[in-house]
Amino acid sequence: MRDLAVKPGDDFDDYANGGWRKRAEIPADRSSTGVGLEVFLKAEQRNADLIREAADGQPPPGTPRRMIADYYAAFMDTAGIEKRGLDPLREELSKIKAIDSKTALARAMGQRLRADVDPLNATNFWTENLFGLFVTQALEDPAHTVPYLLQGGLGLPDREYFVSNQPEMVKIRAAYQVYVREMLKLAGINDSTARAERIVALESKIATAHLDRTTSQDPHKANNSWSVTQLSSSAPGLDWKAYLTAAGLEKQPTFIVWMPEATKGLSALVGSESLETWKNWMTFHILNRSAYYLPKAYDDLHFGFYGKTLQGTPEQRARWKRAVSNVNIDLGDAVGKIYVAKYFPPSSKAEVQAIVKNLLAAFDRRVDALDWMAPATKAQAKAKIETLKVGVGYPETWRDYSSLVIRRDDALGNAWRANEWEYQHQLSKLAQPVDRGEWWMTPQTVNAVNLPLQNALNFPAAILEAPFFDVKADAAANYGSIGATIGHEISHSFDNTGADFNAAGKMENWWTPPDLTHFTEASKKLVDQYSAYEPLPGVHINGEQTLGENIADVAYDAYHLSLRGKPAPLIDGLTGDQRFFLAFAQGWRTKTREPALRVQIVADGHAPAPERARTVRNIDSWYDAYDVKSGQKLYLAPGDRVRIW
């Protein structure tokens, strides 16, 4: 796996992963490969087995197992999908065609409003609805749940794809217009060329109204509580009363408008652009979001653009794999409950919880040792550590899908009803006390998340697998891999966004002015460090956009706590510290197609994996472990190493 011809101090990622990368082949149906895909494929196969097992014995109608089985069967029934053609969409398409006024347009848009991602953790905000809705506690009032309105309306991953004149962006924009035209033509809609031109021109105006990604991630610019009256007066153009009534939000007195200028711009476009153009836009996006569940021609066309052109992926994933993904999206807790019962034993949970305990203790000690932080600020930081709610494996309560209708002969209907069910689930939270134990990922998801508003972390069972985590592995390997992941998520509670929230999840400045100045200056040094990285010729990382993902964690300290004062063994000729840092770098083992890498650099809050492995150059112990000397490419003088926590 290692490339021993590379000096660790010159390129630690290449030293750790270069041998693997030379041999690795990206699967034809993926845009990248690496350790994450390895763990994902294990979870995917397990999920597939569980879903197929759910159909054995014909479980009773209405039970979770029957719903899982019927959803999967409907998605796999390609013959039935071909036979029905566009029939499942006829009613929706007719409703759009019948829109005869801007009020009716607002009503139709409101009916399609859906729950969106957490803006504090999102990798993108693009959505096929004009706005997205996020429901959680208020930024400054952690005792009450409120709705957040987010910018949307784009069919490409970010506004940059519409406003940038870089050749690659211009090329993708042109391909997108061709795709829009071909999708309309396939659906039998006449004058598809002119309609596609109008749709893309409209989305270009929508993109111009959007806030850029870095600004969108700043909660201080997002805390705008507007009444319904303010929505109408401050963002004219959209009939807000009709829109909110259709969205089931007519009784909601206030909203937090996350992107006020974008909201004003999008609403104004509803008023200024022609009704026919908006109807064309809605028609295309209904087709676009439904393509997975329509005949093969639509599915292939959708993949041709979003898979091949945008991500550089040569082949569509097998149908059964996409069926598994969609079951997990729409019936995630039903599958997850079965998944953890079979694949996540109590012993694994206990082992991970022990790692978490050491990581929290290490972070607490690090706060104590900070010579630049005032006692008042330290007390607040330590309170966050003490009250941090860490979910390991699975949620404490499971969702009840009994009111969701799943039919064995209605793939598209199942997806739409599940989408509506999720939306109503989110709306129901508005009348309930804040649930600080709420999970935002399913147990079978290979990922992890920090939730600043809940002061909580979620580590799903599926990521707690080898090589990220192995109960039989050396402590250095576990702490360097899953420990670094957990430590990284803990550090999010104190990064450029998490540091704005107190122990209760309230957005509040808990820093003394000198401490905040020190933190900001240290963060700026990390921004500059990452902005200098150039993953592709002429394409630099946006250090500000990726800042929160680049701040180092405390896994190294926690690893040494786990040793309880005993020396680490020498294994395969490597010391404990060497194995720790090697495991960290190999946890970022990735190979990515160039188009997908471009998308990530533009639209993702995460820097590419090789650059994230370079975080070690800011850690003194790495220099000692690998005898890194001045003159080597990653070497930083002690005063230039970024130390934030």
Brief summary of the model shown:
The chain has helices at 12-23, 35-54, 64-76, 78-84, 90-97, 102-111, 160-163, 167-186, 192-209, 213-216, 228-234, 240-246, 260-272, 275-290, 296-311, 319-330, 332-343, 346-369, 375-387, 411-428, 475-492, 513-531, 547-550, 555-562, 576-586, 594-603, 609-613, 620-626; strands at 32-34, 131-137, 145-151, 225-227, 254-257, 389-393, 449-451, 456-460, 590-592. It has 645 residues and is of the alpha/beta class.
Please outline the helices and strands.
Blueprint: H1 12-23, E1 32-34, H2 35-54, H3 64-76, H4 78-84, H5 90-97, H6 102-111, E2 131-137, E3 145-151, H7 160-163, H8 167-186, H9 192-209, H10 213-216, E4 225-227, H11 228-234, H12 240-246, E5 254-257, H13 260-272, H14 275-290, H15 296-311, H16 319-330, H17 332-343, H18 346-369, H19 375-387, E6 389-393, H20 411-428, E7 449-451, E8 456-460, H21 475-492, H22 513-531, H23 547-550, H24 555-562, H25 576-586, E9 590-592, H26 594-603, H27 609-613, H28 620-626
Parallel strand pairs: 3-5, 6-8
Antiparallel strand pairs: 1-9, 2-3, 4-5, 7-8
Helix pairs in contact: 1-25, 2-3, 2-16, 3-16, 5-14, 6-12, 8-9, 8-15, 9-13, 9-14, 16-17, 18-19, 18-21, 18-24, 21-24, 21-25
